[in-house]
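Researcher: I'm preparing a figure for a lab meeting and need a structural model of a single chain. I don't have an experimental structure, so a prediction will have to do for now. The sequence is pasted below. Please return the structure as tokens so I can convert it later.
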Amino acid sequence: MFFHPMDFLIILAFILAMWAQSKVKTSFQQGSKVQSSSRMTGVEVARRILDNEGLTDVKIELSRRGALSDHYDPRAKTVRLSEPVYRGNSISSLAVAAHEVGHAIQHANRYSMLVIRHKLFPIANFGSQLAPILLIIGFLAYTPLIGIGIILFAAAVLFQLVTLPVEYDASSRAKNKLVELGMISNREEQGVRKVLNAAALTYLASTLIAVLQLIKFIMIFNNRR
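Model: Understood. Here is the structure written out token by token.
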């Protein structure tokens, strides 16, 4: 395909995404060098926040996927923390552990955007896998398939858009709980915020790329009709 005017913006968005990924690693590494005043490990922080919220049935496990593989599994009601977060007692470890617990709290409270996200997941997953195939065939041979591909791709983009408030809300809950339960001092708040904001920026950048790509596909499709 020819170089489309939107490609320039998409390239800039990709550069932003790469910078965001680098910033996440840098922020995490810097925060990992700062031991928290509470001396609590990530797993201890996660357990205390969960128990404070009455979520004693939510488990915490060590993730086997490596560094920065931390996540909350709503089906198993389990918070999985990577080795550096699980056993670490740094600002980064506390921030990441609390963030993942934030998702568990959202799940328990049926946070509206998280509920929507879960409902969109099957459609978005299907769309993200099939859309590229339909778009390629559409651009090369059969234009009507582009429209179907755009609809499926739009579902995946919508999923990413909904993910943004979910992630920002989890980070907000994390910081508030760390402060409320006295697990970080006032001077440590900035370090925690830096780690959480860097992670949120990666979601923002990837969503921006997806939105720009969707706009590009729509413009090309309209020009072909």
